[in-house]
Amino acid sequence: MPDQKTKNSTKLRSLAYVLFLGILTTSATMGVASAGWRDLVDEVKTKLTSSTKSGLSSSEVAEGLKEALTVGSKKSIDILGNTDGFYKDNAVRIPMPEQLKQVDKLLRRIGQDSLADGFIKTMNRAAEKSVTSTFNIFVSAIKQMTLKDAVEIYKGSDDEATRYFRRTKGGEIQQTIHPIVKKATQETGVTSNYKKIASKVRKLHPSLAESMPNIDDYVTEKTMDGLFYKIAKEEALIRKDPAARTTETLKKVFSQ
């Protein structure tokens, strides 16, 4: 029968796999500074396997890592949620809907550039307002990740964790974002701008009016696309930048 020391060692190894994937997936959401993921992963493995020697218990290490995941995910989502988080990032900026590309050209041709540009800007403002609501959903996904999930993600493709998030939480994220987007489109002026555009289209090109999309659905879809794009890019890049140790718990765990 294995002694307590052997049991603890086995638990630590299992914990290492789960926390490794937690770090990888959460780090992927950071839109600006990645956190030296390879160095961090090596450090985590060392801490987990030597926690009894360093005086840190497995629960203390787990607490520190969970805090790192929480801090990292909140920071990355906050970046997208800042003013211009979508609008000035060409990779995630929400463009004029495809169905309105002809309308966009028409508006600019008749000197209505400000109307077209204002519409695009307000759509991105709505995305920035709504994306911060996803934080708790990602935290929940990290907590619910099983050992089997972790191993499959670890062995999978460069965007395996991103696809895991979209597969397990995509529907919940959409349901959470949509009503916030709907409210935000009204507050930021998307709805009023859209009505102005629709009015001009009906007068100038009635046939185009029939193909105009549901703008709340469109902004919701593009907000999700931008969010998951960021995750996938960071997951694949795994940059080597210093980890941000912003709390005493993180300093204690990662400075041993």
Short description:
With 256 residues, this protein is mainly α.
Beginning-to-end CA distance, first to last residue: 32 Å
Biggest sheet overview: none
Order of helices and strands: HHHHHHHHHHHHH
- Give the beta-strand count: 0
Low-pLDDT ranges:
4-35, 48-53, 238-245
Report the radius of gyration as a whole number of Å: 23 Å
Strand content: under 5%
Structural class: mainly alpha
Mean pLDDT: 71
Q: What are the SSEs and their pairings?
A:
Elements (H helix, E strand, L loop, with lengths): L3 H24 L9 H13 L1 H4 L3 H24 L19 H9 L3 H19 L3 H10 L2 H9 L4 H29 L1 H15 L1 H4 L5 H23 L10 H7 L2
Description:
- The chain is an all-alpha fold and 256 residues long.
- It has one domain (4-254).
- The chain is built from 13 helices and no strands.
- Helix 1 packs across helix 8 (147-155) and helix 9 packs antiparallel against helix 12.
- The longest helix has 29 residues, at 160-188.
- The two termini are 32 Å apart.
- Mean pLDDT is 71; it is low at 4-35, 48-53 and 238-245.
